[in-house]
Amino acid sequence: MFQRTKPALLCLLLLAAPSAWAERADRDQPMYLDADTVNIDDARQISIFEGNVKLTQGTLIITGSKIVVTETATGDKHGTITGKLAHFRQKRDGADEYVEGDGLRIEYDTRNEFLELFGEAHMKRTNDEVYGDHITYDSRTEVFHVDSPRTPTSGPRGRVRAVIQPKSESAPAAAEPVTIRSSTSLGKP
């Protein structure tokens, strides 16, 4: 199993290396949900949002056809998002860029700050991308794992795909414009 995941983990480590991914302040923000309909079962602490669903928590945005949110006694939440392709997007901590992804199903756990994408899974940061059947992301440790289980068409093992763009050289800093003024201290020739 290690040999199968080694290339994918290497690619993911390269993607995560520059800095933290998830905006750390998001976890302290309230969670907002919008949908066409909602069914709330207070006794079981389950809410089902359906139709053009949008979950927002700080910079985190998750959309899909249906979101089932369960809440623990301590207030931690777990969301299961489904859709033709459920989608998420979140600002990276300390950077002016976003990480985003989609899949047929997304699982989001607020307690463990853990996100999973299932089926036709895809994640992107700037121009770097990973594809597989199952992608997990632990925002606390900034560790990704991409897996594609064996299928009749994939042969003895599934395949994952990554696109990692070369890092561009930093552009040299622009020089300050020089202002030319007459000297008041020099004499006339």
Care to give the gist of this entry?
With 189 residues, the protein is mostly beta strands. The chain is built from one helix and ten strands.
Question: How would you sum up this structure, described in words?
Answer:
- This protein is mainly beta and 189 residues long.
- The protein has one domain: Lipopolysaccharide (LPS) transport protein A like domain (lipopolysaccharide transport protein A fold).
- Strands 1, 2, 3, 4, 5, 6, 7, 8, 9 and 10 form a ten-stranded antiparallel beta sheet that branches.
- 22% of the residues are buried.
In total, the number of strands is 10
| Radius of gyration of CA atoms, rounded to a whole number | 23 Å
User: β content, as a range?
Assistant: over 45%
- Using the coordinates above, name the CATH class: Mainly Beta
CATH architecture: Sandwich
Biggest sheet, in brief?
A: 10 strands, antiparallel
Query: SS-based structural class?
Result: mainly beta
Mean pLDDT: 76
Task: Count structural domains.
Answer: 1
Q: Helical percent range?
A: under 10%
Uncertain regions: pLDDT < 50 for 5+ in a row? Answer: 1-21
CATH homology group: Lipopolysaccharide (LPS) transport protein A like domain
